[in-house]
Amino acid sequence: MEFESELQSAHLVRRYNRFLADIKLPNGGIMTIHCPNTGSMKNCKEPNSLIWYSASSNLKRKYPMTWQFIESTDNHIVGINTGLSNKLVVEAIANGTIKQLQDYNELETEIAYGAQNSRIDILLSGGGLSKQEKCYVEVKNVSLGVGSGLGLFPDAVTTRGQKHLQELMLVKKSGCRAVLLFCVQHTGIERVSPADEIDPEYSSLLREAVAVGVEAIAYRTEIDPQKGKIWLQDELAVIL
């Protein structure tokens, strides 16, 4: 995908709550921008890091600039906008990048389902491995890199994520495909694992889900801040 407007660069001063961050502009001025990530953002909020932000076309927004990427301390580019993940996956399904999700004829998003009043990110139907088989896809954004090519999810305790795993297990038991897709917005991550020390309950549920047939797959993005582009490209290993 390509951003509507050219990305601008600055340096991070601080991310001081879940929704806002202060940045230092090239002219020395300080500006507050929207932070589209409610997680802990562990390892991707170091002060004075180079960041890139976009301008919103919505003139009514109080903070019209949105933080998109940051350069990590080990010189990798990290996408912090969790709202991009679903869009990136939908785009990648449409262009055939995700080989496990090819050949479906219909794609719907944000469909109500499950026993806990959930919404599935993507519902595929009309094709795939079985002509009658629906495929429920839950997308998770991965931005936590801990070195040596390892990425972890989640970066904070996620009761919502735990619920989604429970729902996916029920989907699988009902006879449909259930897929957990990690969208890795970090150019230095080469494999993904559950973050046992951060959320042991989520990690346990993930292993249980895979054991009953839920498919856990991961794809990494390519990020080009200078050209204002980001896209899903490489499949990564999920190590449980």
TrEMBL record:
<feature type="domain" description="SfsA N-terminal OB">
    <location>
        <begin position="13"/>
        <end position="80"/>
    </location>
</feature>
<comment type="similarity">
    <text>Belongs to the SfsA family.</text>
</comment>
<dbReference type="InterPro" id="IPR041465">
    <property type="entry name" value="SfsA_N"/>
</dbReference>
<protein>
    <recommendedName>
        <fullName>Sugar fermentation stimulation protein homolog</fullName>
    </recommendedName>
</protein>
<dbReference type="InterPro" id="IPR040452">
    <property type="entry name" value="SfsA_C"/>
</dbReference>
<dbReference type="Pfam" id="PF17746">
    <property type="entry name" value="SfsA_N"/>
</dbReference>
<dbReference type="Pfam" id="PF03749">
    <property type="entry name" value="SfsA"/>
</dbReference>
<dbReference type="InterPro" id="IPR005224">
    <property type="entry name" value="SfsA"/>
</dbReference>
<dbReference type="GO" id="GO:0003677">
    <property type="term" value="F:DNA binding"/>
</dbReference>
<feature type="domain" description="Sugar fermentation stimulation protein C-terminal">
    <location>
        <begin position="84"/>
        <end position="226"/>
    </location>
</feature>
